[in-house]
Amino acid sequence: MQHNTHGEMQAIKKAISWKLFILSYLFVEGSCQDFGGGQTQFICTSVPKDMDICAATLQNSMPGEDLKTTVMQLRETVLQQKETIMNQKETIRELTSKLTRCEGQSAPEPGPGGRRKETGIKNTMGDVSRGPSDTLAQLSQTLQSLKQRLENLEQFSRNNNSVQANSLKDLLQSKIDDLEKQVLSRVNSIEDDKPGLRNETEQRGRVESTLTSLHQRITDLEKGQKENRPLDKFQLTFPLRTNYMYAKVKKSLPEMYAFTVCMWLKSNASPGVGTPFSYAVPGQANELVLIEWGNNPMEILINDKVAKLPFIINDGKWHHICVTWTTRDGVWEAFQDGVMRGSGENLAPYHPIKPQGVLILGQEQDTLGGGFDATQAFVGDLANFHIWDRKLSIGEIYNLATCSSKAQIGNVFSWLESSIDIYGGASKWTFEACRQLN
Question: Per-residue pLDDT tens for 365-413?
């Protein structure tokens, strides 16, 4: 586009130069006289500076009518040439403006204060100057590096089945998990912000294919290790807000006149971490729900009655939280990291938790076992989810938060891989609560 514009401008300049030459010639010819027969000669006559050239010519030579006709023709020619020049100047200005805009497309426009505006799509890798192609290419290179490291790990594991090899596996699993979250978030960002960039589909497919391959190979490596791992040493990961990613507890809850719910959570989602768990029964979708959505504080719902909880957990760190409740007077207490942060009463007093319901992790139910809303989905990691049908003491809760050997497991629901099913892309990873405290 720049090349064509430059050529047009050169052609216009040549045309203007040529026409200016003709115009100057006509002016000279209009002020001079033609004499002779076979060969044309021009004799120029001096004219006072204040005198009109054409009038002087009239006085000095040609017959009046012929001279008048010639002068009129010359004046008409001059006017036409003048109009042509003005039109060509306007054309030059338009072409120059277009050329400037074309050249300007390759650089960001100046923003307020002389700073350049950001034109790249902000990505989850923290580089706003890169476009989608550059960022996905960077992710592809990172995946290739991880793939090579995984191959080295496989060889190392075959040659030396040691504790160090298992440690390397865990580290690589963590890095691949984090990378997958970044890729998924990046792809969703591209689709939301730039719906026209469909040319990224092929590269996205390659990245996702590589991730799938890496996950499969990690799974193969873990088969032997998983058989020896305790069933409670795992965490659930929900990397994105969706209406299809969740875990379902295989059995229902019994009728309860008191309860304690405890778990480990890690999230940096904003606004709100979402819904760590929800329990629905026929006729009441909000029988027992823990939720933090929008800019609201975390809340506990019992039979649609609400109490606001003083938890602050969306800092990307692991936190241990517990909520206790008794039907008598609806008394509740909230603990974060082993310390009581708040308490209250009149939360659904004298309403027992009903049995025969559905317990979901990661989503809020609008209908029994379904009706999920992506805006209320949990984003982050969840582990060691336990339920008791009594109110635990402050000491018991402290033992849970500090990984004491005296800590108990839930008598209504205890955290075991065999007790839940996962759906929609939620994943399981090895988790050691006590390791998070070191």
Answer: 999 999 999 999 999 999 999 999 999 999 999 999 998 888 889 999 9
The total number of structural domains in the chain stands at: 3
Q: Which of 364, 230, 216, 210 is nearest to 294 (CA)?
A: 364
Angle value at C-alpha 83, between 82 and 85, nearest 5 degrees: 65
CATH code of the domain covering residue 404 = 2.60.120.200
SS3 call for 301: strand
210 and 266, same domain (yes or no): no
d(CA 350, CA 303): 11
User: 395 and 272, same structural domain?
Assistant: yes
pLDDT in tens, 296-352: 999 999 999 999 999 999 899 999 999 999 999 999 999 999 999 999 999 999 999
For residue 407, the model assigns a pLDDT of 85
Domain identity same for 196 and 317: no
- Domain of residue 75 covers 2-101
Cis-peptide, bond into residue 230, ω within 30° of zero:
no
d(CA 376, CA 269): 11
Query: Which run of H or of E encompasses 77?
Result: helix 64-104
